[in-house]
Each structure stands twice: as C-alpha cells, then as structure tokens.
C-alpha cells in the first residue's frame, strides 16, 4: 500500500528543504569524524596522550556508530522519525560543546563515543524520514545527496583544520573541535518544524495526523479512506520486528545491505583516513599540507558521486552497483604495483577509484530504506550501518599495520579483493527498485507487491482533481 499524494508529487520547496535538513546530519558526521584527525596533534601534545590513548580516541567514535546504528534504528521505528531527528542533533550539539573543555583523555574517549552513537543514530533517522517523503522517481537521487554531504563535511573539516593550524598552530585544537558545535547548532535550527513521516504515522494507525502532515507539507488532501487502507496494509505486514531482519526473505536483504556497504566502505574509509599516509608512501604529501591532500581526496569522492546520482534513477540501482564494484577493483589492482608507479599513475588511480565508487556510495542508504517495510525500515538502516562499521574499524586499524609489514602494493591488492567480494554480493543479491513505491520494493521477494488500493468510487474524482490542481 502506498500514498499517491507522496509517490506522485512533483518536487517542491518542501522536498528541497527537507533534503537539505536531512543532509545536515551526514555533513556533520563527515565533519566530526574528520576534524578529530586534524586536532589530534595539538590535543595529544597538550593532554600528553599516549599512543594507546590516541588509538582509543580514534576508535571510540566508530564503536559509538556501531552502537548507535544497531540500537537507535529500532528506537526510531518505535518512537518516530521526527522526535529522534531533533533529539539526535541536540546530543551532537551538547557533546561538541563539552569537547572544548576536556582536560583528560578519558573525557575525550567518552565524548567521542557519545558523538559516534549520535552519528550512528542519525543515519537511519534522516534517511528513513527522507525516503518516506520523496516521490518514487526522485528517491534514489535525493537519498544519494545525503551521502554526498558526508564527503563535503569531511572536506570542510580538513580545510578548516588546515587554516586554523596555519594561523594559530596546533594549539588551536580546541577551536577546531568547537567549530563542530556551531555547525551542529545551525543544522538543529534547520531541522526545527520538520513534519513526521506520514508512512510512519499511518503504520501506527494515526491517519488524521498523517493527513494533516501531507496537507501542510505538500498542499494535498488525501481521502481518509485511502489512508485507512494504507494503515491496514502497513499493520498487516508480519515482518515488523527486529528479529525478522534475520530470518526468511529479509535475511538475504539484510546480508546484502550490510555486506555491500562493508565492502564499499572498508577500502574507502581506509583511503580517506590514511590518504595522506598512503600518498606519502608513494612520495606525496607531508605535514599540515597533508590535510589539504585529504580535503582534495574528499572532493574527488564527491565528484565521483555526481554521475551516479543521475544514473540510479535513470538506468537503475542493480546495473549501477554491479558495474561500479567491478570498475573500482581495477585501479586498486594497478596500485598493487607499489611505490615504483609513476606519480601521475598513482593520482590517476586514486581519481578513478573515487569516480567508480560513486555507485555503491550513493546506494548505501537507498537500498536499506527501499528493501524493508516501514515498521523496520530505520532498524534495517541502522543494522546495515553497524555491519559496515565493523569493516571500517578493522580497515582503519589494520591499514597502518599492513602498510608497515606488507607494503603499499599488497595492501592495495587486499583492498581490491574486498571490493570484488562486494561485486559478487551485488551480482547475486542486488534487486532492482527504480521507479517503484516503497510498498512494492519492501514486499518480500516471494510475496506479491502491495499496490495502492483505488480510492472509493465517490472520492475518486475528488482525489484525482485535487492531485491535478496541486
């Protein structure tokens, strides 16, 4: 069952505002995860951090993201998208402000963990809310914009950190972490007044509130009969419990979303985190200027996402993700040649990998939101995020060890192998969801898709007329 007023609506000012507000979370995520790398030099000196403490600080946010995605996706499905949407940003603001006043390493670790929990929670919150508001034919592109914002946030963090370090040295690290508090507050202001998801309201039987939300946001009146039918369809879906993600038809989808996300993000996160180190292994980048190198790497990943944003809604999700993984492996195999490669070849390979990675990158949050019903949609997004962060944490931890013990060439070949696993998972399990309603895409593969019931005979003309006028 779907709501035509949402599925068939033209893009308007509300959709654009909601997209920017939802993108604020991933932007902050990229910023918060990256600014710590720039500020850690000054922080380590002032707080006398040991190597073990630095590692804990780096890992704390990743552990927090795992916990936040795993648990707060389910909370979002229970309490609603709009409520968690605001609470999550308030936590980010508070933890960012407190980070400015830390005096001990354990305080930094705890605050980074809390920030990670909020970041992990924001992924399913913002993506499920946007997915349930946008029209079918624009859903893939607009959800892809959210991941684009992550890279822009990361690039902004490196650029801000570079400028602050140039002006005041690494002693400005408190200003660096404090800058995130200002950005969090701005995004929080952007999110105030965001309406609740009508699909979530319908799934809870709150049809009057759903009707009012659609009228206020889209200027469309949905017949009560249609919403009641949608409510009955949503509540009749058996797969509405967390354990259903790990059994029956949805188990394969859970594995697919988690594994392709992990295989995409493990090499990518390692390249993003240790980009300057890797470039240094090839004789490129050092000192504070290496932060500019990291910013440039982030921008290149942004450019790689742009063509994929158009293709996922034009040619489909399945061909984009399969071909992207296949092509991503090629530059990593070439980089397996090691430090003997010419500088031009290294730069070309990095750019090629970033360009080809756009496909699975923009689908990281699209697939989990399309393949699961409203009752467990945010839960599924959170679980996929948690699975991916296992790979990200392992990749981040093992990359410097691999670089020192195996060398740059074998390390890049390991990345190519992980990428090919993602290609195989996509080839076997990727489904095509382009242009279909969420009710159709989230139906189990073995069950008939739940299509919208026609409106009542007496209300049909009125409903169609209202849709045309709006």
UniProtKB/TrEMBL annotation:
* Highest taxon in the source lineage: Bacteria
Q: Which UniProt keywords apply?
A: Membrane, Transmembrane, Transmembrane helix
Q: Name one Pfam family in it.
A: Sugar_tr
The Major facilitator superfamily (MFS) profile domain sits at 18-434
Record carries keyword Transmembrane helix: yes
Can the keyword Membrane be found in this entry's annotation?
yes
In what ranges is there compositional bias, type Low complexity?
441-461
* Chain positions covered by the region annotation Disordered: 438-470
The record's principal subcellular location, in a coarse class, is: membrane
**Its membrane topology, per UniProt?**
Multi-pass membrane protein
**Where does it localize?**
Cell membrane
List, alphabetically, the PANTHER family matched.
PLASTIDIC GLUCOSE TRANSPORTER 4 (PTHR48022)
Q: What is this protein called?
A: MFS transporter
Protein species of origin: Streptomyces solicavernae
């Amino acid at each position: 069952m779907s709501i035509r007023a949402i599925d068939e609506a033209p893009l308007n000012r509300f959709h654009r505002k909601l997209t920017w507000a939802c993108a604020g979370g991933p932007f902050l995520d990229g910023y918060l995860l990256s600014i710590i790398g720039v500020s850690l030099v000054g922080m380590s000196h002032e707080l006398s951090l040991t190597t073990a403490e630095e590692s804990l600080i780096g890992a704390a946010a990743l552990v927090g993201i795992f916990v936040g995605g795993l648990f707060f996706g389910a909370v979002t499905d229970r309490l609603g998208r709009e409520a968690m949407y605001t609470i999550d940003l308030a936590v980010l603001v508070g933890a960012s402000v407190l980070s400015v006043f830390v005096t001990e390493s354990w305080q930094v670790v705890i605050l980074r963990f809390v920030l990670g929990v909020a970041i992990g929670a924001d992924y399913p919150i913002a993506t499920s809310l946007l997915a349930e508001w946008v029209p079918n034919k624009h859903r893939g592109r607009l959800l892809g914009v959210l991941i684009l914002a992550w890279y822009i946030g990361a690039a902004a963090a490196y650029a801000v950190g570079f400028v602050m370090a140039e002006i005041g040295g690494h002693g400005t690290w408190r200003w660096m972490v404090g800058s995130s508090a200002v950005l969090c507050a701005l995004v929080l202001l952007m999110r105030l007044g965001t309406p609740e998801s009508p699909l979530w309201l319908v799934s809870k039987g709150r049809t009057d509130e759903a009707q009012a939300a659609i009228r206020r946001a889209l200027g469309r009146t949905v017949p009560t009969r249609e919403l009641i039918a949608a409510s009955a369809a949503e509540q009749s879906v058996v797969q509405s419990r967390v354990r259903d993600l790990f059994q029956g038809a949805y188990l394969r989808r859970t594995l697919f979303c988690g594994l392709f996300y992990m295989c995409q993000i493990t090499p990518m996160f390692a390249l993003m985190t240790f980009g300057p180190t890797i470039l240094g292994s090839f004789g490129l980048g050092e000192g504070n200027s290496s932060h500019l190198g990291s910013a440039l790497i982030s921008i290149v990943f942004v450019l790689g996402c742009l063509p994929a944003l158009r293709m996922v809604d034009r040619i489909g999700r399945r061909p984009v993700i399969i071909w992207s993984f296949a092509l991503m492996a090629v530059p990593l195999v070439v980089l397996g040649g090691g430090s003997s490669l010419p500088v031009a070849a290294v730069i070309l390979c990095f750019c090629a990998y970033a360009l080809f990675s756009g496909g699975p990158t923009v689908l990281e949050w699209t697939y989990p939101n399309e393949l699961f019903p409203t009752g467990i949609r945010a839960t599924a997004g959170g679980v996929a995020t948690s699975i991916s962060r296992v790979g990200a944490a392992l990749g981040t931890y093992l990359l410097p060890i691999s670089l020192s013990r195996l060398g740059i060439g074998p390390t890049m070949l390991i990345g190519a192998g992980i990428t090919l696993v993602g290609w195989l998972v996509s080839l076997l399990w990727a489904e095509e969801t382009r242009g279909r309603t969420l009710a159709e895409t989230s139906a189990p593969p073995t069950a008939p898709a739940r299509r919208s019931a026609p409106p009542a005979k007496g209300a049909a003309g009125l409903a169609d007329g209202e849709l045309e006028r709006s």
